[in-house]
Amino acid sequence: MGRKLRRSSRLVDMTQHLLEHPYKLIPLTLFAEQFGSAKSSISEDLSIIKELFEYKGSGLLKTVAGAAGGVKYIPLLKRELAETVVQEICVALEKSERLLPGGYLYMSDILGNPETLNKIGKIMATVFAEREIDVVMTVETKGIPLAYATANYLNTPVVIVRRDSKVTEGSVVSINYVSGSSKRIQTMSLARRVMPEKSKVLIIDDFMKAGGTARGMIDLLKEFNAKVVGLGVLAEAADVEERLIDDYVSLAKIAHLDARNREIKVNPGNFLSQMCH
Protein backbone atom coordinates (compact mmCIF):
# COMPACT_ATOMS: atom_id res chain seq x y z
CA MET A 1 0.00 0.00 0.00
CA GLY A 2 1.31 3.42 -0.95
CA ARG A 3 1.88 6.26 1.46
CA LYS A 4 -0.85 8.77 2.17
CA LEU A 5 -0.66 12.01 0.21
CA ARG A 6 -2.59 15.22 0.57
CA ARG A 7 -5.47 15.33 -1.88
CA SER A 8 -3.91 18.15 -3.89
CA SER A 9 -0.71 16.11 -4.39
CA ARG A 10 -2.74 13.03 -5.26
CA LEU A 11 -4.70 14.94 -7.90
CA VAL A 12 -1.52 16.23 -9.51
CA ASP A 13 0.06 12.77 -9.58
CA MET A 14 -3.07 11.09 -10.99
CA THR A 15 -3.46 13.76 -13.67
CA GLN A 16 0.15 13.34 -14.74
CA HIS A 17 -0.24 9.56 -14.89
CA LEU A 18 -3.33 9.85 -17.09
CA LEU A 19 -1.68 12.35 -19.44
CA GLU A 20 1.33 10.05 -19.85
CA HIS A 21 -0.83 6.98 -20.62
CA PRO A 22 -3.49 7.99 -23.18
CA TYR A 23 -5.93 5.32 -24.36
CA LYS A 24 -4.73 2.93 -21.65
CA LEU A 25 -7.34 1.46 -19.33
CA ILE A 26 -6.19 2.16 -15.78
CA PRO A 27 -7.95 0.24 -12.98
CA LEU A 28 -9.03 2.22 -9.94
CA THR A 29 -7.19 -0.29 -7.76
CA LEU A 30 -3.88 0.94 -9.19
CA PHE A 31 -4.48 4.43 -7.81
CA ALA A 32 -6.08 3.12 -4.60
CA GLU A 33 -3.05 0.96 -3.80
CA GLN A 34 -0.54 3.59 -4.88
CA PHE A 35 -2.01 6.27 -2.63
CA GLY A 36 -3.43 4.09 0.15
CA SER A 37 -6.92 5.48 -0.47
CA ALA A 38 -10.38 4.00 -0.77
CA LYS A 39 -11.81 3.51 -4.25
CA SER A 40 -14.61 5.93 -3.38
CA SER A 41 -12.03 8.67 -2.72
CA ILE A 42 -10.24 7.85 -5.99
CA SER A 43 -13.55 8.06 -7.86
CA GLU A 44 -14.18 11.52 -6.41
CA ASP A 45 -10.69 12.61 -7.47
CA LEU A 46 -11.26 11.32 -11.00
CA SER A 47 -14.51 13.27 -11.22
CA ILE A 48 -12.55 16.45 -10.46
CA ILE A 49 -9.90 15.59 -13.07
CA LYS A 50 -12.59 14.77 -15.65
CA GLU A 51 -14.27 18.12 -15.08
CA LEU A 52 -10.94 19.91 -15.46
CA PHE A 53 -10.08 18.08 -18.71
CA GLU A 54 -13.42 19.02 -20.22
CA TYR A 55 -13.23 22.63 -19.00
CA LYS A 56 -9.71 23.09 -20.42
CA GLY A 57 -10.57 21.23 -23.62
CA SER A 58 -7.65 18.83 -23.19
CA GLY A 59 -9.59 15.61 -23.54
CA LEU A 60 -12.11 13.20 -22.09
CA LEU A 61 -11.90 10.82 -19.16
CA LYS A 62 -13.97 7.74 -19.92
CA THR A 63 -15.11 5.37 -17.19
CA VAL A 64 -15.36 1.65 -17.96
CA ALA A 65 -17.62 -0.20 -15.53
CA GLY A 66 -17.23 -3.75 -14.22
CA ALA A 67 -14.63 -5.82 -12.43
CA ALA A 68 -12.10 -5.27 -15.23
CA GLY A 69 -13.01 -1.62 -15.59
CA GLY A 70 -11.27 1.61 -14.79
CA VAL A 71 -10.64 4.94 -16.49
CA LYS A 72 -9.17 5.86 -19.85
CA TYR A 73 -7.87 9.27 -20.94
CA ILE A 74 -8.71 10.28 -24.52
CA PRO A 75 -6.62 13.30 -25.67
CA LEU A 76 -8.72 15.82 -27.61
CA LEU A 77 -8.26 19.44 -28.60
CA LYS A 78 -11.06 22.01 -28.78
CA ARG A 79 -11.93 23.21 -32.28
CA GLU A 80 -11.09 26.83 -31.50
CA LEU A 81 -7.68 25.88 -30.14
CA ALA A 82 -6.99 23.70 -33.19
CA GLU A 83 -8.04 26.57 -35.47
CA THR A 84 -5.62 28.92 -33.73
CA VAL A 85 -2.71 26.47 -34.10
CA VAL A 86 -3.41 25.89 -37.80
CA GLN A 87 -3.78 29.62 -38.50
CA GLU A 88 -0.35 30.17 -36.95
CA ILE A 89 1.10 27.41 -39.14
CA CYS A 90 -0.52 28.92 -42.25
CA VAL A 91 0.99 32.34 -41.50
CA ALA A 92 4.40 30.75 -40.96
CA LEU A 93 4.16 28.84 -44.27
CA GLU A 94 3.36 32.00 -46.23
CA LYS A 95 6.85 33.43 -45.81
CA SER A 96 8.33 33.81 -49.30
CA GLU A 97 11.75 32.49 -48.30
CA ARG A 98 10.17 29.05 -47.85
CA LEU A 99 9.67 28.63 -51.59
CA LEU A 100 11.65 25.71 -53.06
CA PRO A 101 12.01 24.51 -56.67
CA GLY A 102 9.16 22.32 -57.87
CA GLY A 103 6.46 24.07 -55.87
CA TYR A 104 7.53 22.70 -52.50
CA LEU A 105 7.86 24.63 -49.28
CA TYR A 106 10.62 24.49 -46.71
CA MET A 107 9.01 23.10 -43.54
CA SER A 108 11.93 21.60 -41.63
CA ASP A 109 11.85 24.32 -38.98
CA ILE A 110 8.18 23.57 -38.24
CA LEU A 111 8.83 19.83 -38.25
CA GLY A 112 11.75 20.35 -35.89
CA ASN A 113 9.92 22.46 -33.32
CA PRO A 114 8.80 20.22 -30.41
CA GLU A 115 6.06 22.61 -29.24
CA THR A 116 4.52 22.91 -32.72
CA LEU A 117 4.84 19.16 -33.35
CA ASN A 118 3.13 18.48 -30.05
CA LYS A 119 0.15 20.62 -31.09
CA ILE A 120 -0.03 19.07 -34.56
CA GLY A 121 0.07 15.59 -33.05
CA LYS A 122 -2.84 16.41 -30.75
CA ILE A 123 -4.90 17.83 -33.62
CA MET A 124 -4.32 14.66 -35.65
CA ALA A 125 -5.18 12.51 -32.62
CA THR A 126 -8.41 14.49 -32.20
CA VAL A 127 -9.38 14.15 -35.86
CA PHE A 128 -8.91 10.38 -35.79
CA ALA A 129 -9.98 9.76 -32.18
CA GLU A 130 -13.03 7.70 -33.13
CA ARG A 131 -11.11 5.34 -35.42
CA GLU A 132 -9.65 2.13 -34.06
CA ILE A 133 -5.92 2.49 -34.70
CA ASP A 134 -3.24 -0.15 -34.13
CA VAL A 135 -0.33 1.54 -35.90
CA VAL A 136 0.70 4.97 -37.18
CA MET A 137 2.66 4.70 -40.43
CA THR A 138 4.73 7.18 -42.41
CA VAL A 139 7.41 7.19 -45.09
CA GLU A 140 10.91 8.44 -44.40
CA THR A 141 12.00 11.06 -43.70
CA LYS A 142 10.09 14.30 -43.09
CA GLY A 143 6.91 12.58 -41.96
CA ILE A 144 8.66 10.76 -39.11
CA PRO A 145 8.41 13.50 -36.43
CA LEU A 146 4.74 14.07 -37.31
CA ALA A 147 4.01 10.36 -37.01
CA TYR A 148 5.65 10.13 -33.60
CA ALA A 149 3.86 13.26 -32.37
CA THR A 150 0.52 11.75 -33.40
CA ALA A 151 1.29 8.27 -32.08
CA ASN A 152 2.28 9.75 -28.73
CA TYR A 153 -1.33 10.87 -28.18
CA LEU A 154 -2.86 7.71 -29.63
CA ASN A 155 -0.47 5.48 -27.64
CA THR A 156 0.34 3.35 -30.68
CA PRO A 157 3.59 2.17 -32.28
CA VAL A 158 5.09 3.92 -35.31
CA VAL A 159 6.02 2.06 -38.49
CA ILE A 160 8.35 3.68 -41.02
CA VAL A 161 8.30 2.83 -44.73
CA ARG A 162 11.78 2.98 -46.23
CA ARG A 163 12.85 4.17 -49.65
CA ASP A 164 15.62 1.57 -49.54
CA SER A 165 15.47 -1.67 -47.57
CA LYS A 166 17.99 -2.08 -44.75
CA VAL A 167 19.74 -5.30 -43.80
CA THR A 168 19.07 -4.65 -40.11
CA GLU A 169 15.31 -4.90 -40.65
CA GLY A 170 15.34 -8.46 -41.91
CA SER A 171 12.85 -9.71 -44.50
CA VAL A 172 11.00 -6.89 -46.26
CA VAL A 173 8.12 -6.39 -48.66
CA SER A 174 8.91 -3.97 -51.49
CA ILE A 175 6.69 -2.46 -54.16
CA ASN A 176 7.13 -0.06 -57.05
CA TYR A 177 4.86 2.95 -57.21
CA VAL A 178 4.41 5.95 -59.47
CA SER A 179 5.20 9.34 -57.99
CA GLY A 180 2.11 11.45 -58.53
CA SER A 181 3.94 14.64 -59.45
CA SER A 182 7.03 13.45 -61.34
CA LYS A 183 5.44 10.26 -62.75
CA ARG A 184 8.68 8.43 -61.93
CA ILE A 185 8.74 4.81 -60.84
CA GLN A 186 10.03 4.58 -57.27
CA THR A 187 10.38 1.87 -54.64
CA MET A 188 9.25 1.64 -51.04
CA SER A 189 9.83 -1.16 -48.53
CA LEU A 190 8.42 -2.29 -45.20
CA ALA A 191 9.88 -4.92 -42.88
CA ARG A 192 7.58 -7.91 -42.40
CA ARG A 193 8.04 -8.10 -38.65
CA VAL A 194 6.99 -4.50 -37.92
CA MET A 195 3.46 -4.75 -39.31
CA PRO A 196 1.19 -7.38 -37.74
CA GLU A 197 -1.31 -8.93 -40.15
CA LYS A 198 -4.69 -7.19 -40.41
CA SER A 199 -3.52 -4.08 -38.53
CA LYS A 200 -5.65 -0.93 -38.61
CA VAL A 201 -3.32 1.79 -39.86
CA LEU A 202 -3.29 5.57 -39.72
CA ILE A 203 -1.01 7.09 -42.36
CA ILE A 204 0.61 10.44 -41.48
CA ASP A 205 2.78 12.52 -43.83
CA ASP A 206 4.12 16.04 -44.12
CA PHE A 207 3.08 17.05 -47.64
CA MET A 208 0.81 15.73 -50.37
CA LYS A 209 0.82 16.87 -53.94
CA ALA A 210 -0.86 14.36 -56.24
CA GLY A 211 -0.88 11.65 -53.60
CA GLY A 212 1.43 9.14 -55.30
CA THR A 213 3.38 8.35 -52.13
CA ALA A 214 0.21 7.90 -50.10
CA ARG A 215 -1.24 5.62 -52.79
CA GLY A 216 1.98 3.62 -52.71
CA MET A 217 1.71 3.14 -48.93
CA ILE A 218 -1.91 2.03 -49.26
CA ASP A 219 -0.92 -0.51 -51.92
CA LEU A 220 1.98 -1.70 -49.77
CA LEU A 221 -0.36 -2.31 -46.83
CA LYS A 222 -2.45 -4.66 -48.97
CA GLU A 223 0.52 -7.04 -48.85
CA PHE A 224 0.02 -7.22 -45.06
CA ASN A 225 -3.78 -7.54 -45.21
CA ALA A 226 -3.83 -4.28 -43.26
CA LYS A 227 -6.63 -1.74 -43.34
CA VAL A 228 -6.08 2.00 -43.74
CA VAL A 229 -8.44 3.75 -41.32
CA GLY A 230 -7.20 7.29 -41.94
CA LEU A 231 -4.75 9.50 -43.81
CA GLY A 232 -3.55 12.82 -42.42
CA VAL A 233 -1.11 15.35 -43.90
CA LEU A 234 0.28 18.60 -42.56
CA ALA A 235 -0.10 20.41 -45.90
CA GLU A 236 -1.51 19.70 -49.35
CA ALA A 237 -1.06 21.38 -52.71
CA ALA A 238 -4.23 22.86 -54.18
CA ASP A 239 -3.28 23.15 -57.86
CA VAL A 240 -3.29 19.45 -58.72
CA GLU A 241 -4.86 18.20 -61.94
CA GLU A 242 -5.37 14.63 -60.82
CA ARG A 243 -5.41 13.59 -57.16
CA LEU A 244 -4.72 9.89 -56.57
CA ILE A 245 -6.27 10.04 -53.08
CA ASP A 246 -9.79 11.19 -52.23
CA ASP A 247 -10.21 10.45 -48.52
CA TYR A 248 -7.67 12.40 -46.48
CA VAL A 249 -7.35 15.12 -43.84
CA SER A 250 -5.09 18.14 -44.27
CA LEU A 251 -4.27 20.86 -41.76
CA ALA A 252 -3.14 23.41 -44.36
CA LYS A 253 -3.68 23.94 -48.08
CA ILE A 254 -1.27 25.76 -50.39
CA ALA A 255 -3.96 27.81 -52.16
CA HIS A 256 -1.68 29.95 -54.33
CA LEU A 257 1.99 29.73 -55.19
CA ASP A 258 3.65 32.20 -57.57
CA ALA A 259 7.30 31.26 -58.02
CA ARG A 260 8.10 34.29 -60.17
CA ASN A 261 6.80 36.85 -57.70
CA ARG A 262 7.56 34.65 -54.72
CA GLU A 263 4.02 34.83 -53.38
CA ILE A 264 2.48 32.12 -51.23
CA LYS A 265 -1.07 31.90 -49.93
CA VAL A 266 -1.87 29.19 -47.40
CA ASN A 267 -5.37 28.43 -46.08
CA PRO A 268 -6.56 25.97 -43.44
CA GLY A 269 -7.21 22.49 -44.82
CA ASN A 270 -10.29 20.33 -44.40
CA PHE A 271 -9.50 19.16 -40.85
CA LEU A 272 -12.29 21.11 -39.12
CA SER A 273 -14.98 19.16 -40.95
CA GLN A 274 -13.38 15.94 -39.66
CA MET A 275 -12.90 16.86 -36.00
CA CYS A 276 -15.01 14.85 -33.59
CA HIS A 277 -14.66 17.33 -30.70
From TrEMBL:
<comment type="similarity">
    <text>Belongs to the purine/pyrimidine phosphoribosyltransferase family. PurR subfamily.</text>
</comment>
<protein>
    <submittedName>
        <fullName>Pur operon repressor</fullName>
    </submittedName>
</protein>
<keyword id="KW-0238">DNA-binding</keyword>
<dbReference type="InterPro" id="IPR000836">
    <property type="entry name" value="PRTase_dom"/>
</dbReference>
<dbReference type="InterPro" id="IPR010078">
    <property type="entry name" value="PurR_Bsub"/>
</dbReference>
<dbReference type="InterPro" id="IPR036390">
    <property type="entry name" value="WH_DNA-bd_sf"/>
</dbReference>
<dbReference type="GO" id="GO:0045892">
    <property type="term" value="P:negative regulation of DNA-templated transcription"/>
</dbReference>
<dbReference type="GO" id="GO:0045982">
    <property type="term" value="P:negative regulation of purine nucleobase metabolic process"/>
</dbReference>
<dbReference type="InterPro" id="IPR036388">
    <property type="entry name" value="WH-like_DNA-bd_sf"/>
</dbReference>
<feature type="domain" description="Bacterial purine repressor N-terminal">
    <location>
        <begin position="6"/>
        <end position="75"/>
    </location>
</feature>
<comment type="subunit">
    <text>Homodimer.</text>
</comment>
<keyword id="KW-0804">Transcription</keyword>
<dbReference type="GO" id="GO:0003677">
    <property type="term" value="F:DNA binding"/>
</dbReference>
<dbReference type="InterPro" id="IPR029057">
    <property type="entry name" value="PRTase-like"/>
</dbReference>
<dbReference type="Pfam" id="PF09182">
    <property type="entry name" value="PuR_N"/>
</dbReference>
<dbReference type="InterPro" id="IPR050118">
    <property type="entry name" value="Pur/Pyrimidine_PRTase"/>
</dbReference>
<dbReference type="InterPro" id="IPR015265">
    <property type="entry name" value="PuR_N"/>
</dbReference>
<dbReference type="Pfam" id="PF00156">
    <property type="entry name" value="Pribosyltran"/>
</dbReference>
<feature type="domain" description="Phosphoribosyltransferase">
    <location>
        <begin position="109"/>
        <end position="254"/>
    </location>
</feature>
<keyword id="KW-0805">Transcription regulation</keyword>
